Each structure stands twice: as structure tokens, then as C-alpha cells.
Amino acid sequence: MRQQALGMIETVGLSTAVTVADAAVKAANVSLLGYELSRGGGMVLVKVAGDVGAVKAAVEAGKAAAAGVGQVYAVQVIPRPHTEIASLVYSRATVGLPSSASSGSGKEQHDAGESKPVTDPPENSAGKEVPETAESAGSAEAAVETREAAGEESADGTQTRTISCNLCGDPACPRNKGEARNNCLHYGKTSEESEET
Question: What is the pTM assigned to this prediction?
Fold first, then answer.
């Protein structure tokens, strides 16, 4: 965090957070560190870093932009955060950080301009895909077994059903990804109850 300011904007809703992040990055020379989802309430924390004046301007611009879209719950600017809180800022819960920054000691500086190239699946010299390894073949077999156990019919005549709920993973759950959590069959159950079923 080498003498940079940290700006945090907590919003209600992901669309508001995206609007805040967009306005903050456009308004000043700051780097977007990422966002964190809270557990309940639909709150999202957007984190930016940069020079003190730039972070203050970015936070104010984000706050103003959010007024038309949703609600800002809290705003905080820390001018020169101590290096000990780096593990809180660069945590695993922060979406948008590369895995090296969140799994490291927390004292390294995250460079927002640094990106990793996207690689295509490996191909041999003839332009054909390389055959599956044992690990990927095993995961494909597990996916087929999961589909067979779920109950829908696939191309080879076996029964499969896609899992649409990303919370519980239960094929019988009527909830689709993106719908309210209370539509989930397992919503509100404790972890002990869900392990028994």
C-alpha cells in the first residue's frame, strides 16, 4: 500500500457498485482494487487506491453517481493506511484481485495495470487439440454421473438434469441463478441440516 490512500464505498446492490466503480475510475487517477460482497443485506464494498486527492475525488464522484441508481450505505477514505491492514484490503473475499495478491502475505502492492494473458487450450503442431489428461477426464466422468443422478435425459439416453441453483447445487431446487435466495429449497437451513439431506 506504499503511501497510497484507500477509498471504500459500500453500496446496496451490485449494479450500484458497478456504477460507483465506473464513475470513480473515470473521475480520477485511481486503481480499482475490486469489490467484496457482504453476507446479507445485498451490500457490496468497492475498493479503490491512489493518491489522497485522487481517491477523495473518486469517492465523491462514485457517491454522486450512485444517487441516481441506488443507495450508498457508507463511504471512507484512509489517507495512508498502515501496512498491517493490507491483509484486510487484499483478502480472498475481494473479487477482482489476482490469486497471487489475495493468497500472498498481504504486504505486496497490487498493480491494477498488470494483467495475465488469456491462453487457449493447448494444441499440437497439426492444429488439433491435445487429448484429455486423466484429471480432466475424471472431472468429465463426474459431470456425467452428476447429470445421470439428477434425472434429465441426455443425448445417449441417460437421464440428466442441470443444476440451476448456485447456492445449494441441488437439482431439485426450483431457484435459478440470479433469483432471490429465499426461493432456494435450502435457504435458511443450518450447515448441519443441509449435510444430513
Answer: 0.49
